[in-house]
Amino acid sequence: MKALTQTDFNFPGQKSVYHGKVRDVYNINGEKLVMVATDRISAFDVILPKGIPFKGQMLNQIAAKFLDATTDICPNWKLATPDPMVTVGVLCEGFPIEMIVRGYLCGSAWRAYKSGVREICGIKLPEGMKENQKFPEPIITPTTKAEIGEHDADISKEEILAKGLATPEEYAVLEKYTMALFKRGTEIAAERGLILVDTKYEFGKHNGQIYLMDEIHTPDSSRYFYSEGYEERFAKGEPQKQLSKEFVREWLMDNGFQGKAGQQVPEMTDEIVTSISDRYIELYEHITGEKFVKEDTSNIAERIGKNVQEYLEK
Questions:
Q1: Once rounded to an integer, what is the mean pLDDT over residues 275-286?
Q2: What is the crossing angle of helices 270-288 and 246-254, to 10°?
Q3: DSSP 33-62
Q4: End-to-end CA distance of the chain
């Protein structure tokens, strides 16, 4: 099983390339983006030393399905998926914020709450909440979009408006789309026996209109619990059975790594890599309700290059 961790394509009309934590984004003529979902995996804002086979294919295919399933809510950037690991879409000018929406108190929000914090991104949290408790209503806790190697930082709606990162009119649309997308994601998850706990959305503008960009409802951008047994585990104060990248963070924390200076990433054995790949496949099949079909990985880069080239030349 091979993993794609680096790309170096030269597509027709290519102007530039941006290598993100997980995705490599190629600018075509300043009009389109070719987004390659690699098999890289990041946690605590650090790219881990080994790739996870089939991870890019899974993420790309989940995101494509959800982008197609939400076009009635808002326009999105996707034009085509010429390869299982690639989405081609329209170039948007992105807002420098990520819209994070939380239905439950967990992850970093719980860690902050446990330490005594009672306000996140300008939103007051009630006293006496427990880990993994459902909020009365989902809350939006935006973050700034950090440069590589830096951590995203919480930001309030008031700060976003004060800094001019979005106009009041634009932010109202971002909020509306965020809540509607989260509601749709929650409904689809419920049909599959899952709870969509929290997720993030990125938006940009194209021809003056706000578009949903990037990935949506994938295990890299979202956290899912299994519905079955949720109440029982919550009542007993037990950890929830979850499908997300959190299990990777937990494995790292158990091995003394939280992305802090001087810490070493623990050794990623073949067994660890395979187990992470298996968890991603489990999530794919749960969330889509479809069997995951592994693509040929004998020469991933060559396959992608050929498929994208053919699409762009059409």
A1: 90
A2: 160
A3: EEEEE-S--EETTEE-SS--TTHHHHHHHH
A4: 32
| Alpha carbons 195 and 186: distance in angstroms, whole number | 6
- State the amino acid at position 220 in one-letter form: D
Q: Rounded distance, CA 78 to CA 211, Å?
A: 10
Which DSSP category does 284 fall into? H
Give the span between the Cα atoms of 70 and 200, in whole angstroms: 15
DSSP code per residue over 126-194: -TT--TTEEEEEEEE--EE-PPTTS---B--HHHHHHTTSS-HHHHHHHHHHHHHHHHHHHHHHHHTTE
Contact 83, 303 (CB under 8 A): yes
C-alpha gyration radius of the chain: 19
The model's confidence at residue 147, banded by pLDDT at 50, 70 and 90, is low
- 211: three-class secondary structure by DSSP: strand
Q: Mind listing the pLDDT tens digit for each residue in 13-33?
A: 999 999 998 999 999 999 999
Lookup result for tokens 């762009």: 312
pLDDT tier for residue 149 given thresholds of 50, 70 and 90: low
Identify the pLDDT of residue 219.
84
Mean pLDDT of the 78-90 span: 98
Q: What's the average model confidence in pLDDT over 136-156?
A: 84
Task: Give the tokens for residue 128.
Answer: 């006496």
- CA-nearest of 148, 141, 188 to 21 is 148
Query: By the 8 A CB rule, do 35 and 86 touch?
Result: yes
Buried/exposed 59-95: b ≥16 CB within 10 Å, e otherwise = bbbbbbbbbeebeeebbbbbeebbbbbbbbbbbbebb
